Amino acid sequence: xxxxxxxxxxxxxxxxxxxxxxxxxxxxxxxxLAWYQQKPGKAPKLLIYKASNLESGVPSRFSGSGSGREFxxxxxxxxxxxxxxxxxxxxxxFPTFGQxxxxxxx
Amino acid sequence: xVQLLESGGGLVQPGGSLRLSCTxxxxxxSSYAMTWVRxxxxxxxxxxxTVGASGDSTYSADSxxxxxxxxxxxxxxxxxxxxxxxxxxxxxxxxxAKGRAGLINDxxxxxxxxxxxxxxx
Lengths: 106, 121
Description:
The complex is a heterodimer of chains A (106) and B (121).
Chain A: E1 4-7, E2 10-13, E3 19-25, E4 33-38, E5 45-49, E6 53-54, E7 62-67, E8 70-75, E9 85-90, E10 96-97, E11 101-105
Parallel strand pairs in A: 2-11
Antiparallel strand pairs in A: 1-3, 3-8, 4-5, 4-9, 5-6, 7-8, 9-10, 9-11
Chain B: E1 3-7, E2 10-12, E3 18-25, E4 34-39, E5 45-51, E6 58-60, E7 68-73, E8 78-83, E9 92-99, E10 108-111, E11 115-119
Parallel strand pairs in B: 2-11
Antiparallel strand pairs in B: 1-3, 3-8, 4-5, 4-9, 5-6, 7-8, 9-10, 9-11
């Protein structure tokens, strides 16, 4: 199985901050990487697919980059609605997810 | 509106069985692979099983292989997960999810809210 490791596990930030979350795969997954946002009691929401493609309807302050084993999700200017947990998922093989990064208010 | 609605969860004793259902609406169900993903409250997401668009191909995680069976009825726009020999570690919120591009290994663009399965005596 491909293991996905996210860092940090928790991130404290303020509205307007630039936020970066990293996801590392245990082996190369090319660009087959997705990012999700999840709020308490809600289903995950797809933000980014194929490492850098913005899902329809997702604000442009979200962006993704990377290939191979290392990937990043960036929020250019954190908004109040962005405080949530973010998870990466590889789909080069049967899906595996990172453990999540909780973005909380500083 | 594109929607997935799960049902069938509940409390079951270890060794028992449950059948989860996921009813889809708002898209051409028969064109997309469908997947079950589970989540222990407060923990990360775990892939469980995937079924191809036609239902002919199925795939499951090692942790559930031989105990869980995924299937679909395209005439009813419904996905199923038959869960047998349930264990305490199967306790989780079970989501169904639609693959974005119709691939077996895919990102998931539509998720249901989930149905809770609790395995306890």
